[in-house]
Amino acid sequence: MNRKVRVRFAPSPTGGLHLGGVRTVLYNYLFAKHHGGEFVLRIEDTDQTRFVPGAEDYIFETLAWCGLEPDESPRHGGPFAPYRQSERKPQYRQYAEQLVAAGQAYYAFDTPEELEAMRNRLRSEESPNPQYDHKVRGEMRNSLNLPETEVQSLLDSGTPHVVRIKMPEGEKLSFTDLIRGEVSFDTALVDDKVLLKADGMPTYHLAVVVDDYLMEISHAFRGEEWLPSAPVHVLLWRTLFGEDQMPQWAHLPLILGPSGKLSKRDGAKYGFPVFAANWADLKSGELTEGFRERGFLPQAFVNLLAMLGWNDGTEQELFSLDELVQRFDIAKVHKGGAKFDFEKAKWFNHEWIKKLPVAEYSAQVQTIFEQRGITVTDKGFFEKVLELVKDRCTLLTDFWEQSAFFFTAPKELDTTAIKPKWTEAKTQFFQNFTGALAQLQTWDAASLETLFKEQAAAAGIKPGELQLPLRIMLVGGKFGPPVFDIAALIGKEATTSRIEYALTQL
Ligand code: GLU
Q: What does pTM read for this prediction?
């Protein structure tokens, strides 16, 4: 590879980032870092009708959460500014005109009514997909058909117009995709896309080519849904800058949900997040849940995204970001769609919860506790609790269910399993046990267990018959880590008072 590696993620700020979008970021990032190159974030905001307030902030916040910081962006700055397409507006017209001069584009003056009439006519001729292409361009009001003087006077008088690409009629356009190999298109099937709009803004097609050139982008990775646009881009590259300057393309496979391409609606339908972080649409008021808020760790989210369409050829599934950077190879990305499985996604999170030291995520769990009304005052104690229950948690929100009882004594005790077998002797045992606890010198799990067993032997009751009651007294239900670990952690006073309270309920 002789060019400096420079890749870009080029989102339009139109809403939240779904799995596919963040995976595109990730593969760009991994490739750049693997090759010691740069990862650029460019905001493609030339379609002002689709602009959504808050979407740009969301993109930056999400990338920061994932640990995928761009090297250059509208906010990080960089030598190729501006990184927001709208700020480059005055530059695009010259390229559009260069294309017109080269005979690869033309001015089109058709009004919306004329365009609609053309489409209606084609529909009535049973054309399933009416489009402005080589078949109709000869009948429309454009600079290919109008006399030169009329074109000039229309331009001079400021008549609204667009610039369209002139797709060749029967040419085969090919390029080599790093994932798919050689890809070819029959240009006759591609329409004459608008390159420059009536408001002077470029469309995506022109802007993406110009910007990739000006920003010296060496590789362009994007979702498979952009593949049909590729012939337009190849043709623009050829005319404007030369195909040898063109970035190497890779079109990433679709992410599939339970029924075809994963969509935002699948999230609502099947009850799993499809966005990285919560997205609140200001216009519709609709809230789409994110992986972050569902209780995913960024390490797990990044790991599971990496595996959606790629593996390193071994059985290994758990990768840190650093390992991914070392191992990532764009040529190993699969061609076929990658199936998203929420159960598998949760497995990744569970593994990462177990793998990471709790200090890495205790702040996030603390927020979850605070949202539920528990203020954490002793961080040391909080982290000991998290350490004790982490193997039982799949989502960060599970920490609440698994350990809230450490912070508030249970009031509702699930005594159904112990009540039928309750005896006066057991009441006596627990009364004696709390008395003995008061005398206990060393307060740790081992000493508690020894004492408990000695007392059970003295009372002639099997310890096994007393441990479940003790658990229900301390926890409120039949779950949680080893019961003497719980007692050791909540301390003498809480252990004693919980047993005493439970005895009043039995
Ligand atoms: N602006 C396009 C998008 O929203 C970028 C496509 C590309 O990367 O070329 O996805």
A: 0.94
CA of 283 from ligand 1 middle (Å) equals 23
**Amino acid found at 191:** D
Which residues are catalytically annotated? 264
User: What superfamily in CATH does domain 260-356 come from?
Assistant: Glutamyl-trna Synthetase; Domain 2 (1.10.1160.10)
Strand pairing partners for 505? none
* pLDDT tens digits, one per residue of 261-283: 998 888 889 999 999 999 998 87
pLDDT in tens, 482-503: 999 999 999 999 999 999 999 9
Q: Which ranges constitute the DSSP H helices of 146-261?
A: 148-156, 204-214, 230-240
- Distances 447 to 430, 466, 467, 496 between C-alpha atoms, Å: 17, 17, 15, 15
Segment (H or E) for 25 = helix 19-34
Query: Do strands 260-261 and 255-257 pair parallel, antiparallel, or not at all (unpaired)?
Result: antiparallel
HEC states along 262-306? CCHHHHHHHCCCCECCCEECCCCCCEECEHHHHCCCHHHHHHHHH
Q: CATH top-level class for 89-196?
A: alpha beta
Q: How far is the CA of 111 from the centre of ligand 1 (A)?
A: 28
Closest atom of ligand 1 to 12 CA is: 4
How far CA 3 is from CA of 120, 212, 248, 331, in Å, comes to 49, 14, 11, 18
Given this model, what pLDDT does residue 49 score?
85
Question: 8, 12, 217: which to mutate for ligand 1, most atoms within 8 A of CB?
Answer: 12
Instruction: Choose the residue to mutate in 226, 236, 237, 248 for probing ligand 1, maximizing ligand atoms within 8 Å of C-beta.
Output: 226
Q: What is the pLDDT of residue 468?
A: 97
Which residues lie below 8 Å from residue 149, measured CB to CB, with a gap of 6+? none
CB atoms within 10 A of CB 59: 26
Structure tokens at 228: 């049909």
Measured from CB, residues less than 6 Å from any atom of ligand 1 are: 10-12, 44, 204, 208, 222, 226
Instruction: Report the topology of domain 357-406.
Output: Helicase, Ruva Protein; domain 3 (1.10.8)
Q: What is the CATH number of domain 409-506?
A: 1.10.10.350
Give the distance (Å) from ligand 1 centre to CA of residue 224. Answer: 11
Residue segments in the chain with a per-residue pLDDT below the cut of 50 = none
Give the pLDDT score at 128: 80
Atom of ligand 1 nearest to the CA of 9: 8
